[in-house]
Fold Pantothenate synthetase.
Amino acid sequence: MQIFYGKAALMDYLSTLKTTNTSIGFVPTMGALHEGHQSLMLQSTKENEITVVSIFVNPTQFNNPEDLEKYPRTLDTDIIKISNINPNIIVFAPTVDDMYEGKTLSQSFDFDGLENKMEGKFRPGHFDGVGTIVKRLFEIVQPTRAYFGEKDFQQVQIVKKMVEKNHIQVAIVVCPIYREINNLAMSSRNERLTLQEREEAGIIYKILSEAKAKFLNNSAEKTTEWVKNKFNKNKTFTLEYFEIADESTLTTCKRKSKNKKYRAFIAVFVNNIRLIDTISLN
């Protein structure tokens, strides 16, 4: 199995494999891999001759130092999981110094306002960090296709906008959310939950599903108020935000339109651990 810890070595190796018609699939991750990540890798191996998986906990997209410090790092286990999927997958696990060359700073991006909604509103600078690292990874790997999970829907829209504005030749492939038995969206942060918290966290998707049903016959405002009331009565989970927005622009829904696709977005805290989820509403 090929594992690279520096970008120069990876770029040299990929240059020896690439021909005019060789397709490269790329799965960027922050490690602590779960079945959702594994599904992205499987799709990439089916659709491309070469698959590269990066494992890099990117410091510039964390606005909370405690979250960065406690983010699970399980590189040895991750490599075993990747090998079990397909030993031909190339692993890229760079250091912070290698990626940032001693200057751990974000580039500033204009994402046409997408960065100011929801996650961007509550995590200042987060999407500049995401844009910076994804752009650098794309420059290193030069993938044909890059695979992202739908759970981070806003992030996917941000990446698409970054690709469009920088004229990067890569297709962004969005893959379905993988869920645990209780429908909690799979996330590396789930590893930080206690067994009881993890079990009870199924309520997030339950409320999302009920909100979807309510939205059919109610306004976005009434549906949002209903969700807020549900969490106000819950002592374990603290709602950071619930928002119904236009899928393409991420603009908050004020009045429903038949011609638009809407999606609900949610962020919830349990014992200082932040969980997000999303669901299509039509």
